Fold each of these.
Amino acid sequence: MPVKRTVALRTAGSAMIAVAVLSGAAHPQTYATGDDRERRSAEVLQELVPSPDGPGCAAAVGERGSVVWEAGRGKADLKTGRAITPKTVFDMASNSKQFTADAVLLLAGRHRLALDAPLSAYLDDPPAWTRDVTLGDLMRHTSGITDYQDLLEAKGIEVTDPAGQKEAIAAILASRPEEPPGKRFSYSNSNYVLLAHVVERVTGTPFPTFLQQEFFTPLHLRMTLSPAVDVPGKAKSYDEKDGSFRPNSSPWKQYGDGSVQTTPGEFVRWADNYRTGRIGGAPLLTGVTEGAVSVGDVLRGRGIEEGRYGAGILLLPDKSLVHRGDWEGFHSTFEVSPDRNTAVTVVCNVDSPDHFRAANKLMAIWAE
């Protein structure tokens, strides 16, 4: 079962984009010279994945849009023995949320929607309570709306049963917020499923197609939004118990809250948009952190003691950006330095409790 209602959560989605975008030629890479950062980084990965014979992790570091170090360790597929390499594709889980939030900010910058607009404006026959929930509430997880995973499971639909966007939205709208909107941060995947729906209503374009056209293609990123699909080069995910590994997967096809498939290297290349604003310009860069809300003590014990949630990303006191993702055996950590020059991504295909700390160590090595 997935971990629920933390900054690390992420769920599945729908496959509307051709997976071929992930199989293009590798981008030119640059590597640091004249120091021992590569060696120290390799030691971090080896410490994270002691044995190369089980599932493992891949990691990448980017500087101003160029990948300066990347590596993989462990197996992408235990059955075939395929190894994890820098080109292995992973489900980025909740780290996908930043694209959904940025899609909303992009449309806001084009004056096609407003963050203070009510959710009800984008629904057919909206429940009365949706008039009190704004798009900004959804983006910052202050809507008070129950996580759709809980709602579906309450209806007897498990993560091993088929379920998609339609079922999730129906369950959300049939419920009521657990508390008044706008009052408190409460992480819920429902918020981002609804935001993806809003983008589709405003643009008339399937959400995966919108991301491809507006973000992935212009930035030359080998990414796709393809939930519950074995895209080329993708790792299998696993659960571990007493040293044994069991394949983990789900047929759920929700999107907006997760489901971006890519490599760590591509993800740190994406991070440079937080520096350049190439997509979205100043309105998007401002919107990423503007109005960010305190997450309270949600992150206690996770290596973060304080933070504010903005547009699909957590803003730390030192102005760095960070997010985690967990979904059915995939676990990811994404970090961007305060000056936005350095980015780190660590992704695993089995639960590795130290992957967040490994990302911190890599950031310390390369941003020092």
Amino acid sequence: MTIRILPAVGDPDAGHSLSGLLGQLPGVEPSAPVGDSTLLLDTLASLAAASLEELPEVVLVHERIGPAPALELIREIALRFPAVGVVLVTADAGPALYSAAMDAGARGIAGIPLGYEELAARVQGAAQWATGVRRHLGGGGDPLAAGPGGKLVAVAGAKGGVGTTVTAVQLALAARAAGRKVALVDMDLQSGDIASYLDVQFRRSIADLAQINDISPRVLQDAVFTHQTGLGLLLAPGEGERGEEVTDRTARQVIGALRSRFEIVIVDCGTQMTSAGAAAVELADIALLVTTPDVVAVRAAKRMVRLWDRLQIRKAEETVTVVNRHTRSAEIQPQLVQRATGTTVARTAIPAGFKELQPAVDSGRMHDLDAKSAVKQALWGLAGELGLVEAAPPGGGRRATHRGGHAAGAAASAYCRGCGGATP
């Protein structure tokens, strides 16, 4: 059997040396080295999207790969691409690092300076393990577990009270009503309201996964509550102090596990940027920042964008800002928000609709919000703009993204009709 190897090395000299040594191993087909962690994950995702068999059997991760730390990168690969064997290449082959690498999901460590026999043994061991996993997956395993995983949407608020949770909940409901398998995660760890908005009483929370190194499907199933709408809910802890247990490492593990089993994962990050929320924003395929069209909220949005940039979490141009409670008479319009924040403002703006929302919020029945609600129609139109549901029917798709939400409402009605007329 030919062993395909993908080296990930940030140092060009080290990459050249490693490629030369790999070329001497029998039965090995090394690819050209990739120079950073982002490119490595993108490459693996592209290969996995084509077929499980397109993935390399072995990935070699050099300790100086960057920008993500090597152990975090290994953990991400292990969660998203479990059919790939990872070997850490490092100058520190001591027991502490060995244990940490194994906990992260590595199948072995190769010490620097690299030796032919040691490298051959590590590659062979990782390849055998990968082959066994693929044989198991091919015999009826979950096909999503081998691929890049579902789409991750992080929803954060510029400040408290701008409608972050309503946005996250309605986007999730829209995607679910369109037939997608959706997980909704409450990562507003100290004051999350998703359970209240959806009338849920469930004792398990994301904090129960904080001390678990290997989140198996059974463990995940025990922590995720299946709502009557079909949404999978992973809730914030009922005791706010337990939010401190959920670190960025926990967030990455949980998100990776969810993405392997759901088509769409929507995370409500709240308005306080915790390390867990920062990890969700960093990993997100789509990062939404919710604001209202007033000076205080727009300034807060600008501060949040700058914070993400300073922490190297997210660039402004990679962020989508959603303007909530929009009115045509407001002094601050979406174009001004876009200029102030440097982000891309969603074409669909959410109209002000406190009176129509209040009964659903007070009763904890956000999923029963009237289909004629302008807020619901706009948010479901936003789901279409973001690609969380299928495009609107011919003749309505272009109009569905106009500002103000009216045409978006027509698209949302079309989505409801496609679900047999039932509201979520």
Amino acid sequence: MSSLALAVRDSSTMLRRNLLHARRYPSLTLNLLLTPIMLLLLFVYVFGDVMSAGMGGGADRSAYIAYLVPGLLLMTVGSTTIGTAVSVSNDMTEGIIARFRTMAIHRGSVLVGHVVGSVLQSVVSVVLVGAVGVAIGFRSVDATALEWLAAFGLLTMFALALTWIAVGMGMVSPNAEAASNNAMPLIFLPLISSAFVPVDAMPGWFRPVAEYQPFTPAIETLRGLLLGTEIGVNGWLALGWCLALTLLGYFWSKSVFDRDPK
């Protein structure tokens, strides 16, 4: 069997292992999924009318629902990948990685299994949050099939990028609690992006924090694809962030994983 076939076989085995863990212990994924859903319901039904009026949509909260959902979809990606950091940390600290090192398996298959499994979970979580958004009034009637495909591709690429970062965080964390804390920026950054309010509405001193981070251009690109708003340079910035974070997370994770255990 060729090395490529061995890598695919072993990666598939590790993927099944991680999906089996997610099925047997769903509490972490469900808890992380509840965060964007609760924020969606809170901002729509508590602040929706006021926010819509402030955005020029009158007293109808539908304008704010349309604005909010794309940001919450990307926040869902960030929150789901925290589970990846915890899972990787558990593997690194509980001895299973040491066991894998002694077995005749492809060395990178352990990481590939975590990454692919996490991306699949992120996609499922995004679909669930999107279904909640549609149920409470979100509509994307002007988006073409190509734009929907591009939106799905952006979400998948962003999930891949954040997953590699989460894998690196999990590998350098001494325990699961530290991994969860280290990955908290993946939930915190969307809160200070354009997910909830336009960047132009933020104070001048705070605006650069929201502008120069990965979530804002990705959110604006997703809005443009789903709602027909202007994308501008945000599309290229989002792709650049995805590529940069993927490469950073990959080489970071690989360098830590390839170190000889102490």
